[in-house]
Structures are given as C-alpha cells and as structure tokens.
C-alpha cells in the first residue's frame, strides 16, 4: 500500500480527532450539558478513517446513530457538529437534528440516522444518482452488525447488485446490537459471507487496523467507480463504551470488558510511524467473472485479514469470545 | 416475585410490568418479544437474568420468572418479529411484542397494515389475531424527529387495530391487561416521559375496558379532552383554571380506537365548550377527527368554536428550546381555554 506522508498524517489526525471529540462529548454528557441520546464511536475510529480516506470529496456516505466518527472522517466541521449536539442554532443542522441526525450534504455526508437500517436504501439512491448523472461518485454505506438483520440491508444489497450501483456497504461489526451479542442475532459468524448471496464481493477486515480497512476500501471504491458494482466490507471492531451513554453494560463479560481498553485502533496510541503501515496484501476483489457477479469460487478465498481475534464459540454457547 | 393484592402507589413502568407478569402466569400461551426486552441473549452469566429488561426497564425480571423460551430477545428485524407476533397470534399464541419507538412502525408497517389488522376480516372471521404491540410515543426526551413521534392517529386510521394510550399507572395496568386479553390486535402506546409517573394501582387482577373514556375531573364550564400525556396536561390546566374561576371538565380518552364518542358528546352537551389537546401532528389527526364528530353530532350544543392545542404540522425538533415550543403544555391549554371561553354566548 502506497500512502504518502500527507495521507498518513491526515489519517492519523482524523482518528485522533474522532477520539478526542468523542471523549469530549462523553464528559459533557456526563455533566448533563447534552440533551437526548448519545452513541459514541470510540474504538471504531479506524473504520470511518480507513474508508473515508479512500473517498474523494464529492463521494457520499450514509451513516448510523453512531455517526460522529463518520462525520469527522468525511470532513464535517467539528465546531458545527458540537453545536448541533448541544442543540444550538449554530449547529450543522440548526439544532433540529442533534447527535443522531448530523448531516452535511455539501460534504457528501448524508446524515447520521436514528433508524437502524435506514441508510442502505439511501445509499442505493446516491449510487443511482451517480450512475444516471455519470458523476463517477461512489457512496459508502456504514451500518452496524445489528442493522444487517434489517430487511432494508438485504433488499438494498440485492438492488445495488442487480443495478450495478457504485455502493460500498461497510458493516461495522462491533459484536453487539445494544445488549444483544452478534452471536445471537446473526446465524453466521461473518456478515461478509452474505455477499455471496447477492453475487457481490465480500471481505472481512480487522476494523481496528486502519491500513487494512483503507486498503480494502480503496479496492472497493476502485471497483465501484469503474462501474463494476457494489461490494460488502465487514470490519470487525469493538465499541469501548456502552451502547449509549448511561448503559451499564452488564451483558459484557468481565474478560471482554477489560479487553477493549487495551485494544486501541492502530495509529492512535503506541509506537506508530509510517513504516508500521500495513504491508501490501492480496486483492480481495475477484479478477474474473462478470462485473458485479464474481464467481462463487472467489468466496471466501480473497479474504485479506480473517481477523483471528474473533471466534464463534461452539453451538448454543454464549456470545463472542476472544483468543 | 410476589404481586401485591392491595392497592399501592407504583410507577407506570411497574404497573405495566405487573400486568404482563400476572397475565403470563395465568396464560402459558403468552410470549413476549422485542429488541433487548431481556437483553444479553446467550451471554453466559445472564442465562435467566436480563441485561436491560427493555430500554425503559418495563420488562425487568420477566426473563427470570418465565425464562428465555417465553421472553424472546429479537434481532433488529421489526418486519420479521412484529410479523411473527401476528402470525403466532393467528395460530394460537397470545404474543406481546415491543416496537421500541412508534417511529419504527416504518420498519414493520406491512405486518400491521396488511396482515394483523385485516386477517380476521378477510378470513370471514375464521381467525383471530390476539396480539398486543407495546410501543413508545411522545416528545420531551430530546430524542429528535424519528424517536419522538406520536403516531396513534396513523394506527387508528387502520380499521382492525385497536389503539390505547393510558395516562396514569392504574389505567396502564388495567388497559394493558384488557389489551392482552383482547382477541384483536391492540397497539398499546406508552409515553416516553411518563414511565416514572406514580399513581395508586389496584393489586391483583385489574381491567380497564378498551373503548371507554374516563371523566377524570368533572366540571361545568368547558370540556378539556386529552389522551396519554395530554390528559395530564389537561388536568394540570384545569387546576390553574379553577383558581381563575373556570370550572373545566377533563376527559381522558384512554382509547383512541374505537373512539368513545358518547362520553365526549355527553360532556360537550353539559359544558357547551370543547378544547382538545393532542400531541400528534394535526393534519388528518385525532383532534380534527374529534372536532368533526362534535361538529356533526353535537353542533347545536356548542357555544364557541372547538379549540385545539396540538403539535404543529412539522417533524419534532431536537433542540430543547424548539421542542418545548413544539409540544403542547398546560400553559398553552390554559390560553386556549380562555380564548374559547371569551368567545360567543
Ligand atoms: C428501526 C430501528 N429499530 C431499533 C432501533 C433501536 N436501536 C438503536 S441502535 C440499536 C442497535 C444497533 O446495533 P448495530 O447496528 O450493531 O450498531 P451499533 O450500535 O453496534 O453501532 C437499536 C436496536 C432503531 N433505532 N431503529
Ligand atoms: Mg453493533
């Protein structure tokens, strides 16, 4: 992967900005300064950063209730974001939306979304606009593991596939939908495996590795821009805080609760330099096959990072465990 | 857990919990389902304990008593599980499903619009659909446009659904029990800001019939009509008005569909004035419908135009300043009543 010093610095800045922004929101919320619900992106910075750094400014993204990180990575102004979260007239949405609905259409940020599964159909729409106008823009659609169980996701993935839309579906699998473990709400371990059923490429990457995410995103974007249709990128990640601020998190086992604190996305803490940037990996995109319909044999071989930290425990057993 | 047999003061959340608990004890065909209604499904140390007991804690302790076979956490798949609740109801269970926020109606509308509400009719009465959908309505929580809606008029617009919305703890218990026992789909609306509101609740079995409004405060000068939180606003406004010499009668609608037209008309006949308080959007809404009923069936009793205090026809704003301006409140009711009382004979 060839990233310039400028790109590396900018990715680092984005991740640190997200972390700092979120910790600031957390403190302000604890003091009672912020109205409503707040869902923090702490721990998942590498995903928004890795994906959005593969986009150009005119590309679009759709987001979720946990949207602050996506906004920052897409270039939204942080002061206006914070003003929005406080409900001020000077906010990005004039105080009408708040944390769950921050948007900046001019920046290609099509809105955080209070409806789980609200984003994928909108992303198809953005992809269609690009296709019809010939703008060459792509849309990155962020959604959680919980959202993968919404019909809107399945329908959108299929629609994008049959229309060959320039959409990158980015599943942020943080292992939980509220207090419900992904191992309960999802019958398979890897959401990306569903790509096969839509006839699109799918891959699993380590969502705490910004380079792995970036590299996979670059490929998916290239493919979408070239008119070869959508892809599904699953990023395994972990949210450090509760589902929302105030969540007691009794559903997290002691061991896993202690774990994420030590697991900071690369680039945020610890020794980090451009030289630790990930080494080039094999493409996860099929090299043959009909555009948008890779042959079945391409799944799941082109799978760069199987994310060894995540294991599904044997049948009927509990939640996600880590080795 | 023991359930009291005598009346005592508890919250609306506790009253709802008590109703579900008693009904589940009595009827093994009742299952409950929803996102995180227990929470922590398949988490080892939470096997028969919940992580959340619902986002608002209404279903706390139920998994402990009834187990995860009857207290089902669901994926975020409203179309599937609300639809499954309807299907289970049509085939012999008596499910209670939680649609966390009523705005999520968007994600499961077909199950209610085209299936649950219509099966009994379309099948010539050969199926019943005894399902209860508990859902949250209302603003005031700074939850913004998608999570602060008041959609009972939308539900009520669908024939085949019953729609209830209690304003106090006793009615919450009694109406929920009636809803669970009802053989038709009932949409049970709970106001997001009212779960901690306390009131005296009868112990043991307590039923409040669906379709019957309550005269919450008798009066002679003007009728104030509200439902859910707006019934509380109406009562508060009536207290203020009493100090100013206006004796208001307050009707707590309790059920939106079927509508208790008789209780409303009887009151209007007595007072000659009506102010309707409704948190829902006004166009084709509850307030305008009731005004229509009174205009067509009780016009000759009216001494002034019907007053309406509703939300504006706009999405709910996030900013606390804007949301406060958006929502009905007792002050707005008092002003509307004064205007109504200053008009005509
Ligand atoms: C249609 C809909 N159903 C339910 C909810 C309530 N809800 C908000 S966030 C959430 C969990 C989402 O989980 P996931 O998609 O994994 O995202 P994460 O919170 O983990 O980032 C739920 C159930 C909602 N907002 N919208
Ligand atoms: Mg999740």
State the secondary-structure class of chain B: alpha/beta
**CATH homologous superfamily identity of the largest domain in chain B:** Thiamin diphosphate (ThDP)-binding fold, Pyr/PP domains
The helix-strand sequence of chain A is: HHEHHHEHEEEHHEHEHEE
Q: DSSP helix count of chain B?
A: 13
Note the main sheet of chain A: 5 strands, parallel
List low-pLDDT spans of chain B: none
Please, what is the average pLDDT of chain A?
Answer: 84
Distance between the termini of chain B: 58 Å
Query: Helix fraction of chain A?
Result: 25-40%
Query: What is the terminal separation of chain A in angstroms?
Result: 28 Å
Assembly state here? heterodimer
The molecules bound to the chains, other than polymers, are: thiamine diphosphate, magnesium ion
Compact overview of the structure:
With 323 residues, chain A is an alpha/beta fold.
Main attributes?
heterodimer, A: alpha/beta, 5-stranded parallel beta sheet, two-stranded antiparallel sheet, 34% helix, disordered C terminus, B: 345 residues, alpha/beta, Rossmann fold, 2 domains, 7-stranded mixed beta sheet, 5-stranded mixed beta sheet, 14 strands, 36% helix, binds thiamine diphosphate, binds magnesium ion
What does this protein look like?
Chain A has 323 residues and is α/β, with parallel strands linked by helices. Chain A has ten helices and nine strands. Helices cover 34% and strands 11% of the residues of chain A. In chain A, the strands form three sheets. Chain A has a five-stranded parallel sheet with strand order 1-2-3-7-6, sandwiched between helices. In chain A, strands 4-5 form a two-stranded antiparallel ribbon. In chain A, strands 8-9 form a two-stranded antiparallel ribbon. In chain A, helix 1 (5-30) runs antiparallel to helix 2 (45-52), helix 2 (45-52) runs parallel beside helix 9 and helix 5 (119-133) packs parallel to helix 6. Chain B is α/β, with parallel strands linked by helices and 345 residues long. In chain B, 36% of the residues lie in helices and 18% in strands. Chain B has 13 helices and 14 strands. In chain B, the strands form three sheets. In chain B, strands 3-2-4-5-7-6-12 form a seven-stranded mixed sheet, sandwiched between helices. Chain B has a five-stranded mixed sheet with strand order 9-11-10-13-14, sandwiched between helices. In chain B, helix 1 runs parallel beside helix 8 (169-181), helix 3 (78-90) packs parallel to helix 4 and helix 10 (261-271) crosses helix 11. The radius of gyration of chain B is 20 Å and the shape is globular. The termini of chain B are far apart. The interface between A and B is large, with 40 and 39 residues. The structure holds thiamine diphosphate and magnesium ion. Magnesium ion binds next to strand 4 of chain A.
